[in-house]
Design goal:
This is Dihydrodipicolinate synthase family protein. This protein is α/β, with parallel strands linked by helices. The chain has a single domain, classed as Aldolase class I (TIM Barrel, Alpha-Beta Barrel). It has 12 helices and 8 strands. It has an 8-stranded parallel sheet. α6 packs parallel to α7 and α9 runs antiparallel to α10.
Length: 305
């Protein structure tokens, strides 16, 4: 099993038009911007990509656009999360039809009885009926179920499950998964504030939504952590924590991310209905924090500032 899901893999926001359809030109521009900035992969239609909120067919369309624009230069992952095993299988097959090589899958959601054993059966069934590579995606704040480390270890042994993205709150659990899975199994940290310590402890990469805004910073942070440069990693950790304040500047984190990234001039900050975008006061806070990060980078005299 080759390990190709490594480095900085941003969970892209999904640019939308006024009818909540994917804005193709904007998405292509965003993918190209990420690749030009040296980011190592693309993850579309995750949580901040509003994958489960998109209109029928729009998730598959976003995946198709991303795959076409990437042209094999970086790996593309697409969220296939849904409320039942059969629905996820259908989602993965639709992604396969448009050439998307990898699907990220959570536990089922909107199911109060979901369990660890059900999640293992969920992945096993999906693997049997699909051909794409699969990434287990731990997102308990949205699904209501946190994968236990032992569960992820068992899921990692299922055919074509090639990695794990952890956006949960148990940092110790992530380290346990890393320690107890095969070296070829990609372990990706989904919480930016834990990224540097996770990289120093063997994580293969991380998944920061604001990487398109500061691509050189995030790539430099990955390089420091992956190379074991503790002194530089500590400095990067402080900078990455400052980027996280951008997301916390608004009540809706996805809206904050979309507004922040829209300042690049590549896309509109619109979020899927009925969500509200950021308020004028929140916009000002976000813009101030973006400038703060830029000034901190400049003060560090790094070329990625």
């Amino acid at each position: 099993m080759s390990k190709k899901y490594t480095g900085v893999i941003p969970p892209l926001i999904t640019p939308l038009d006024t009818r909540d359809n994917v804005d193709e030109d904007a998405l292509r521009a965003l993918v190209e911007h990420c690749i030009a900035g040296g980011l190592h992969g693309i993850f579309v239609c995750g949580t901040n990509g509003e994958g489960v909120q998109l209109r029928e067919g729009q998730r598959t369309r976003a995946a198709k656009i991303a795959v076409e624009q990437a042209r094999g230069r970086v790996p593309v992952i697409c969220g296939a999360m849904d409320t039942s095993t059969r629905r996820v299988i259908d989602n993965v097959k639709a992604l396969e039809d448009v050439g998307c090589p990898c699907a990220a899958i959570t536990s089922v959601y909107y199911a109060r009885h979901a369990s660890q054993e059900e999640s293992i059966r969920h992945f096993a069934a999906i693997s049997r009926e699909t051909t794409a590579e699969l990434i287990a995606y731990n997102m308990p704040s949205m699904t209501g179920l946190a994968f236990l480390p032992a569960t992820v270890v068992r899921i990692s042994q299922i055919e074509r499950v090639v990695g794990y993205k952890d956006s949960g709150t148990s940092y110790g659990g992530f380290l346990q998964v890393r320690a107890e899975t095969d070296a070829a199994f990609a372990c990706l940290m989904g919480v930016t504030d834990h990224a540097m310590s996770a990289l120093l402890m063997g994580a293969d990469g991380f998944v920061p939504v604001l990487a398109p805004l500061f691509p050189r910073l995030f790539v430099a942070a990955y390089t420091a952590g992956a190379s074991g440069d503790i002194v530089r990693a500590r400095r990067m950790d402080a900078l990455l924590r400052e980027t996280s304040k951008i997301l916390r500047a608004a009540a809706n984190m996805t809206a904050a991310a979309k507004f922040a990234i829209s300042t690049l001039g590549l896309c509109d900050p619109r979020v899927a209905a009925p969500q509200e975008g950021v308020s004028e006061a929140e916009k000002m806070c976000i813009l101030r924090q973006i400038e703060q990060v830029r000034q901190l980078c400049a003060a560090a005299q790094e070329e990625w500032a």
